[in-house]
Amino acid sequence: MNRVEIYRGWCKQCGICIAFCPHQVLEADDSGYPVVRNPEKCTGCLLCEMRCPDFAIVVNKDEESREETGSPAGK
Amino acid sequence: MREAEHLVHKYLRSSKRFPHIWCSGCGIGIFMQALVRVIDQSEYSKDDIVLISGIGCSGRLPVYVDFNTLHTTHGRALTFATGIKLANPRLKVITVMGDGDAVAIGGNHFIHAARRNVEIASFILNNNVYGMTGGQSSPTTPHGAITASAPYGNIEPDFDICRLAEAAGAVLVARSTVYHTRLLERLIGMALKKKGFSVLEVVSQCTTYTGRFLQLNSPVEMLKWQKDNAITVEKAKQLSDTELEGKIVIGVLVNRERPNYHEQYQSLLGKKSKV
Questions:
Q1: Given this model, what pLDDT does residue B248 score?
Q2: What is the pTM of this model?
Q3: Cβ of A72 and B41 within 8 Å?
Q4: In this structure, are strands A57-60 and B68-71 parallel, antiparallel, or unpaired?
Q5: Which among B77, B227, B262, B269 could bridge B95 via Cys, Cβ 3.0 to 4.6 Å?
Q6: How far is Cα B93 from Cα B123, in angstroms, rounded to an integer?
């Protein structure tokens, strides 16, 4: 399973990762920080990571899903 | 929790403080990440790259990344870039400018760098406003928009940066938004490969000023606005000018070949030494 990690120290709670995740993997906590609610739904598309203006979210893809999508940035 | 290992982290200057200074949801960080990703996948090492900026929010970008970097005076990124490319053609010269930096105070340098066709990949982060100084109108602020310097609406028409670049002679002219990150990466890659003056307009969001003036009250609403208003070059060809009003045409607008300045300069030096 892909593992989504959030680096809270750098996050500015803009909400972009939560709003544009195609599979609603993330949710906002009471302070507006993203938290991983549905990790099993993550397809490893990396859109949250690529659109994070603060480099505060990382998707660690497992080997199988990396081969499926063939994303050049999935290393 | 284990500390995140982000691709961008490898390219950041560890001496700088993070989080960076840009506002919550600012598009500059999204562009910076895309640029670093493309360079990471390319043949260029950190030492091959020279990243140059002028003044403004975008001017902070070279401060954070560990390439050869210059933070120059307002509007003068392209003049420094031209000098560097002529002095050492081996280097990959990149400029990052804002809309005010590139087409207002630096407008003259912009058109002449394009006319000369110096090999520079120039990225213009267009947020339609002077963000750093408090939200004044810039040359790309839309007509009628409310800004700090135009409280009753902007009475000036706005520049189309891409048309300006095309008319001035740029060999690659393209546009993307920061929402369209995959397209953004593809176009950054094309601009880096082009052996001449390339211009990529990156439609970005100033969440602090433009957002407030347009009554788009969050970074998410501003990205949705980019998503809803963007239209590809191919689709745009089938629409009239009236239908295209308010749309953001994204993709490659111009891709042509022309002799570039520094190669002609080098061959001139070769001829002169034979005389």
A1: 96
A2: 0.93
A3: yes
A4: unpaired
A5: B77
A6: 11
